[in-house]
Amino acid sequence: MRSKINFYLIEYALNALLREKYKSFFIMSIFTLLTFLLTSVFFITNSIKYELQSTVDTLPQIIVQKIKAGRHYDIDESVVDDVLDIAGVDDAVARVWGYYYFENAGVNFSIVGIDAYEKQYKKSFENIIEDFDFATLEQTPSMVVGRGVKEIMKQSYYDEYFNFIKPDGSLKRVDVAGVFDGQTQLESNDMIVMPKETLKEIFGMDEMQATDIVVKVKNPQEVSTVAAKIKLIYPDTRIITTQDLQISYQNIFDYKSGIFLALFVIAIFTFFIIIYDKASGLSSEEKREIGILKAIGWKIDDILKEKFYEAFILSLFAYLLGVILALLYVYLFQAPILRDIFVGYSQLKTSFELPFIFDLHTLFLVFFLSVPVYVAAIIIPSWKIATLEADEVIR
Amino acid sequence: MILTPEVLAIFILNTIFAFFATIAFVLSVKIFLHWNIKSVSQSQYKLEKQSYLSATIIKYIFAIKVPLFLFFIFTLDKISKVITGAMCGAGVVDATPYGTYLLILKVINLYVFAYWLMLNSVDMKNEEQPYTKLKFGIYIIAFFLLMGELVLEGVMFNSIDIDKMVSCCGTIYSSTASSYISNIFSIDTGMLLFLFYGTYVLIMLFALLKNKYLFSIANLFFIIISIIAIIVFFGTYIYQLPTHHCPFCFLQKDYYYVGYLIYIFLFLGTFYGVIVAFIDAKKEQMQRDTKISLVFNTLLVLLLSAYPLIYYIKNGVWL
Questions:
Q1: Three-class secondary structure of residue A116 per DSSP
Q2: Residue of B53, B82, B110, B260 to mutate, testing the A interface (most A Cβ within 10 Å of its Cβ)
Q3: Is A81 in the same domain as A198?
Q4: How many domains does chain A have?
Q5: Residues A45 and A113 in one domain
Q6: B133 burial level (CB within 10 Å; 0-12, 13-18, 19+)
Q7: For residue range B7-51, what is the model confidence (pLDDT) as tens digits?
Q8: Measured between beta carbons, which residues in chain A are less than 8 angstroms from residue B162?
Q9: Predicted ipTM of the assembly
Q10: What is the pTM of this model?
Q11: Whole-number Å distance between alpha carbons of A160 and B151
Q12: Chosen from A361, A366, A378 to mutate, greatest number of chain B CBs within 10 A
């Protein structure tokens, strides 16, 4: 612990690794592959988490849903007025939105209804209202669609308009007025925006009802108090705050990478056994080497130390290589194949760039999962080698 | 139950520790019972070889445990974002009845293992190997401490309930709280600072007098008094907030991770200080240990004192 690093020993260890080219190369490639896989998975989850987190930040602070028979139900718009009376509430807006299943392509569109003259709860909607004239959109029923939706519709030869099937079976023709880009790809790819009136007709909703109500609170620290007050006035509602969402996102992704890690445990113990086996098997060449070292006066401690230097150099190098490869794979090539595990297989899969998030924590995590395991695997084999008898080996 | 990748990683390493620690334990018991350096028998020869294996294993465990301890604190901070109410590690530690004991046990284990390594290095330098029996005896105790820690860690992470509300550090380390921690706030600040700087001066004095026992005791006292002083007095200046006393929050990014520096200084300074009384090392080594202890203790005192002083220079008032 006290002794200084012996550079001659490091040089010797490096040379020893190079002497055993094939063995070192074999171990190194497996090790690199393992760290590479692990790091990639963590990088991908980090990036997606960041992307979702920034989506959550743009979401309303409180969402009020009506619950009937344990299920989400349309809420009366009059609730908005009561919510606005609560002290600290800046704004409350009734939202109309939902999913429309387009059978032909087997995809779900998310449709959002907005009014041109009310205050928008999302910045991106304000941009849409600026770009498109909603007053005219209301007169001839039309909509603004996301890029992905546009493509899917085109495949079914819906270029200028789209026929929605209403709950009563009749058709509702809505024109496509334009295409928009959202701030984050994740939310806007499968989205359609249209006037509230049109949407209520498509979904067959009552005039005075809305899907849910979003509430804006001036002071973010009062969010939980306001949420509690709404719950008190309307016990039949479910109140969701951004904090709840953030925590559940964190949990989902911890869970996903946790499952991956649980599988990885098997891989790493297999690796442990392979290394143990490789390190135990000594060629006659190596045996002679140990014998000569001992004969010229190396102590058991010295040989052990040299073996650990070897292991440490090898594992550190493989670790760094794995991390660098993962960086390239995830951020340069956008992690083909692997990221599908986390994003899902929907037809209207959102195409998004993984943002570059450099998290030191992840690097430590991968380090602890790789280097100590390798070093642990060579403890006993190294000790066996180091305690060989010089005379037995050389003979 | 909480199973983030970080917790899983800690569990995996704990499994490896448990496996190797048990091997070392079995060997240590054998060595402790049958060691006889004067004997030339086959069995003694075998024991000598085995002593290398256990020493290597213990070195390995310690070498991983030190960075892992920092990683553990880091993990607590991360989990605190998931648990309702917790804002830093303190909330997570307080979330289960085991947290506090686990943390204390972890710190004790760090000291014990570091002591073992010192003993080992002194022992190996001496041809007679006078401490072999002693060091493996100590390891037998350390093994149970280690296993206790591993089990407690498993139990703690298992019993964390994500949906349960926990206390924030603001309430745990508050003078109005009714917990046992709040008792320390009844100590007069002036008195506490006198004790803190007084102990530091005593450490210097005993180092000059070359009385290693008093030096060691003063260092032992310094650990406790420093932690209390950090909670009661210095913490408030790090946060620049007279009501915030948490000893965990300054481990976070907002305070430039200064907590890690503080605790590392505290550990190194007091460890080398306490150790001189426990090991009959050669004179040069003792002087070196004393010097290291003094350097790190001084760094700690300077670092901690800098916060109130800079605050006073900037604002012209004390908190």
A1: coil
A2: B53
A3: yes
A4: 2
A5: no
A6: middle
A7: 888 998 999 999 999 999 999 999 999 888 888 888 888 888 898
A8: 247, 251
A9: 0.82
A10: 0.78
A11: 66
A12: A361
